[in-house]
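Hello forum,

I keep getting stuck at the same step: I have a sequence, I want structure tokens, and every attempt I make locally crashes halfway through. Rather than fight my setup again tonight, could one of you with a working pipeline run this one for me? It's a single chain of 517 residues.
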Amino acid sequence: MTETGKHVSALDLVLAVVDPGSWRCWDDPVAVTTDDPDYRADLLAARERTGLDESVITGEGRVHGRRVALVACEFRFLAGSIGVDAGERLVRAVERATAERLPLLAAPASGGTRMQEGTIAFLQMVKVAGAITDHKAAGLPYLVHLRHPTTGGVLASWGSLGHLTAAEPGALIGFLGPRVHQALYGEEFPAGVQVAENLLANGLVDAVLPAGRLAGVAARALSVLCADGGGAPDATAGSPAGSSLDTPGTVASPVAPPSAEESIRRSRRPDRPGVRELLRAAATDVTLLSGTGAGERDPGLLLALARVGGTPCVVLGHDRGTHPDPAAGQALGPAGLRAARRGMRIAAELGLPLLTVVDTAGAALSREAEEGGLAGEIARCLADLVNLPAPTLCLLLGQGAGGAALALLPADRVVAARHAWLSPLPPEGASAILHRTTDRAYEVAGRQGVRSADLLANGIVDRIVEEGLPEEGDFLSALGRVIGAEMAALTARDPRERLAARRSRYRRLGGRGVVHS
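Reply #2:
Ran it on my machine without issues. Output:
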């Protein structure tokens, strides 16, 4: 929708997104076959008004040079409603995109099912959703840009299945359209709820974007989601001379390990870099995602697409944020873990490496967290990560307390910053359990083997990266090089062998021959 409130046509939207001269329409003509004279008149009037023969257009173009399939609704054609012919056109376009292995960009603007065609039109949403599911199962990206308005069955099917979903500024987006709500319930729908900006605030969409920015954002996201275009580092980049990424115990520069107390104190410094600083220093093509896509956001978790050290990946990590108490940090709740599982699904569907970043003082301790199923979400994260088909790398960046840390830990490889640590509870909590006081926290942590050096000796960590003072940028750059090289090496491995090695890795923990501190 433009600033003047006028609808942008489907063709104008498409031409604003694709490179000049690259649009190729895929649509075969459809005939008007209805016997209903009123509906026939409506169809002919819609054709005259729009110059189109149906409410959707499909085809392909290039977005910043990349070949992409596009489908878009024309709202001026019977409110962008989806009937049998429109549904068939959509499915054929999705199937062609899948067969030709093209990423797909959808731009719906629709009131939903075409009422004149009844139940058979309603069921078109099933076959369109099925085609989209097959497209994603083939490892191909699906991006959605919700335009004004998008309601009803379109939103409840192919409008809500994107790997990434953006919305037009000010767009009306909701399952039940305002006119229907007024007719059924005799009152207007609450103002401000079904608006793009409110959906963003509640984690239902990833961004609010005008058409003019869509091409750039889509191109950046596809540069990661398609996992091509070069930039992957050599598998030995950033490695010490003569070392192998598959050799446990790789250390950037051997030094005397710090005490548990020193590492814990260092990890809690307010100026210590977190996942956002890591992305700024060591990543390109970063696209932040919002929440779970199910109306939830959790400031304790960051979800993004990025190239880290040159390697495209999905990033999910604990977000330190700006909490005034570094020892407390931003607690992670059930919604954050559900967002993490969304990231895992994207990685699995597209075969992208998954980078998890552990830096948490612990999970949320509240009634809301308990009633929201925190424990169950931790369990599901563990189960998903252990069995995820995508390559996985865990970075222990700072604090690693309790179940919130464990939920992001299982991976093919684990890299630790020198002052990162991992513990069943915050040290103060462990001290309280063992000694009924928090005063012996560092003593208990030392005995528990929480340091990166202890984790390395016990086979929990594969590699330690040394670090200087937090204000020095070299540490984050070195992390980026190591992460990129590690992920590139993991991606090159046979998937079945890699998954079997991951399962074996965690089966061996605590077995004979493993060092215990």
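Residues 229-253, 513-517 have pLDDT under 50 and may be disordered. If your local run keeps crashing, start a new thread with the error log.
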